[in-house]
């Protein structure tokens, strides 16, 4: 898959929303260990609203479904997660416009998202936040895009793996933000819930892209990792 | 803890509905939000506060004469979203700009900052004061990382009065920031509260233990140990307060002994008595002394002590008339009116 249509983007983000809603208990459990325990509830609320928006609206620009999801999360979730995950999807206000989405355009979108998340949250890698999953995912997308030889599905799969590794790595960090910050070294050994959510977002995008790679051909488990 | 609620998902909404059932003559709902606004806001800088539900009277009841013009709550212990804050601010903004006053928590800052950007993009100036009175949350050299707890009462009250005195936005901001910098608080608790619908308290301590410096959401504090007597606890906490903001004999202070939700007024009076002994022994002049539940965390059992170090400028605004649903105060001569 070299480009996604507007409809592809819409359906991919619907799949992301469904995956996050289905992950509610997992995310709450992760948050109970080092936070208030409500991360999964906020994410369910936000992505339920986002799914309704995606189902209801027609879009004529491939960036607009991302912005709609982001705006929905910001306006319905509240808390730190609402703004940060909203910005992750929305990117920044100076968004591009295109009828299709190439890997390079998708990469630029998430590069803007990363910059906005870092600016607003004042977080860097190693602070035990969603940045620890988002930054390696975006770096992976950039490498794939620059190589010029990687399709969207493979690039998203590599980004998802990078996000998952980054989320796992947060177990080794003490937190600099939120309630987990006050736990100090007691937060060691636990994954950051926001980083976990970010990994799930990229995995859901990769799964959708693989499932719909090659003119609607279903993903064949035997070949799904060889599309690059 | 079995609570008298209907539906855990409706607690934030029904709290606001109940507030308006009682105080609806003065205040009105901001549609689509958990916000309330004065029915008749003044022709002045608008003071807007907010934060997560569940700490009442913070922030829902920090509205009235000498307080905020509008407040916007989120879900329990969660910041309100930016669009709700914008709608709440617009309900009371009258062309003189908006001052945000809220507790220094990551979620609140993210959402209020985004709301400020939206208002500024629409041509409405916004300044922000984040409450940072909890000295246990970070050392003095990183005071801007401290959380906001009950001492926000003093800053809110002075900010509201400064706006009512007719100061412009920059001047109201400066007075409110000065009040925040002059306030210190420290808390102690022996048992945590439970979020409505939750099954576990936000923190648990072994029986017979207490923790000094514990946060409003159960954030760990600075000293955990066996329960102390009221006098011992008050003495230790006053030592922390004076250590963090040294005092000179003759200085004027305002004091708040605040209950965190489940503490009886008798306990608070026993604490207040010892606090007063401490203040008198240090030769401080107690300008005003408050006692009650001014900032809570569900049924947390514990209390906090807040001290505002008054100077002439702060006292001018502090002494203006102030009235909120949980509080009546201020009887001195009104501040000099400097409306342009």
TrEMBL record, chain A:
Q: Which SMART domains match?
A: Dak2
Q: Which Pfam families match?
A: Dak2
Alphabetized Gene3D superfamilies for the sequence: 1.25.40.340
Record's protein name: Dihydroxyacetone kinase subunit L
Which NCBIfam families does this entry report, sorted A to Z?
dha_L_ycgS
Instruction: Report the GO terms under cellular component.
Output: cytosol
Q: Provide the leader sequence positions.
A: none
Checking InterPro entries in the record gives:
DhaK_L_YcgS (IPR012737), DhaL_dom (IPR004007), DhaL_dom_sf (IPR036117), Dihydroxyacetone_Kinase (IPR050861)
**What GO terms in the biological process aspect are recorded for it?**
glycerol catabolic process
DhaL domain residues: 7-207
Q: Which GO molecular function annotations are given, in alphabetical order? A: glycerone kinase activity
Its keywords, alphabetically, are:
Kinase, Transferase
Q: Which organism is it from?
A: Phytoactinopolyspora halotolerans
UniProtKB/TrEMBL annotation, chain B:
Q: Could you confirm whether the keyword Iron-sulfur appears in this record?
A: no
Q: Which GO terms describe its cellular component?
A: cytosol
> Which SUPFAM superfamilies does the entry mention?
DAK1/DegV-like
Answer yes or no on keyword Magnesium. no
**What does the UniProt keyword field contain?**
Kinase, Transferase
Its GO biological process annotations read:
glycerol catabolic process
Signal peptide interval: none
The DhaK domain covers 7-327
One Pfam family, short name: Dak1
- Could you name the domain of life of the organism this protein comes from? Bacteria
**GO MF annotations in UniProt:** glycerone kinase activity
Listed name of the protein:
Dihydroxyacetone kinase subunit DhaK
Protein species of origin: Phytoactinopolyspora halotolerans
């Amino acid at each position: 898959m070299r480009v996604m249509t507007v409809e592809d983007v819409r359906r991919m983000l619907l799949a992301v929303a469904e995956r996050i809603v289905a992950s509610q208990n997992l995310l709450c459990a992760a948050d109970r260990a080092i936070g208030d325990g409500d991360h999964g509830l906020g994410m369910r609320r936000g992505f339920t609203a986002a799914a309704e928006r995606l189902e209801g609206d027609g879009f004529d620009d491939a960036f607009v479904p991302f912005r709609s999801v982001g705006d929905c999360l910001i306006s319905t979730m509240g808390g730190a997660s609402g703004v940060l995950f909203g910005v992750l999807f929305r990117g920044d206000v100076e968004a591009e416009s295109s009828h299709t989405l190439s890997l390079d355009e998708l990469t630029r979108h998430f590069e803007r998202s990363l910059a906005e998340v870092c600016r607003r949250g004042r977080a860097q890698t190693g602070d035990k936040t969603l940045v620890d999953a988002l930054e390696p995912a975006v770096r992976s997308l950039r490498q794939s895009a620059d190589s010029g030889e990687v399709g969207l599905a493979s690039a998203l799969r590599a980004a998802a793996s990078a996000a998952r590794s980054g989320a796992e790595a947060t177990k080794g960090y003490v937190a600099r933000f939120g309630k987990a910050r006050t736990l100090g070294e007691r937060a060691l050994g636990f994954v950051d819930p926001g980083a976990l959510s970010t990994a799930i977002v990229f995995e859901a995008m990769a799964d959708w892209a693989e499932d719909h790679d090659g003119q609607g051909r279903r993903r064949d488990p035997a070949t799904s990792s060889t599309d690059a | 803890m079995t609570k008298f609620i209907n539906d855990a998902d409706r607690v934030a909404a029904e709290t606001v509905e109940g507030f308006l059932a009682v105080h609806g003559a003065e205040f009105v709902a901001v549609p689509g939000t958990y916000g309330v606004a004065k029915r008749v806001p003044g022709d002045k800088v608008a003071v807007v506060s907010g934060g997560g539900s569940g700490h009442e009277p913070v922030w829902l009841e920090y509205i009235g004469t000498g307080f905020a013009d509008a407040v916007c709550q989120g879900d329990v212990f969660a910041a309100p979203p930016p669009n709700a804050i914008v709608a709440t601010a617009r309900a009371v903004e009258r062309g003189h700009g908006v001052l945000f006053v809220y507790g220094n928590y990551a979620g609140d800052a993210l959402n209020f900052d985004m709301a400020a950007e939206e208002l500024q993009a629409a041509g409405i100036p916004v300044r922000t004061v984040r409450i940072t009175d909890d000295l246990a949350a970070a050392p003095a050299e990183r005071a801007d990382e401290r959380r906001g707890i009950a001492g926000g009462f003093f800053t809110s009250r002075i900010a509201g009065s400064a706006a009512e005195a007719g100061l412009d936005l920059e001047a109201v901001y400066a007075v409110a920031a000065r009040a925040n910098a002059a306030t210190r608080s420290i808390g102690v608790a022996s048992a945590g509260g439970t979020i409505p619908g939750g099954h576990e308290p936000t923190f648990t301590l072994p029986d017979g233990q207490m923790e000094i410096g514990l946060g409003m959401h159960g954030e760990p504090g600075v000293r955990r140990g066996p329960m102390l007597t009221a006098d011992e606890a008050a003495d230790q906490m006053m030592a922390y307060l004076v250590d963090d903001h040294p005092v000179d004999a003759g200085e004027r202070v305002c004091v708040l002994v605040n209950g965190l939700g489940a503490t009886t007024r008798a306990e608070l009076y026993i604490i207040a008595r010892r606090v007063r002994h401490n203040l008198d022994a240090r030769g401080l002049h107690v300008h005003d002394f408050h006692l009650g539940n001014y900032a809570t965390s569900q049924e947390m059992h514990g209390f906090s002590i807040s001290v505002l170090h008054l100077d002439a400028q702060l006292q001018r605004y502090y002494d203006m008339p102030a009235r909120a649903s949980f509080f009546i105060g201020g009887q001195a001569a009104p501040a000099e009116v400097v409306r342009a």
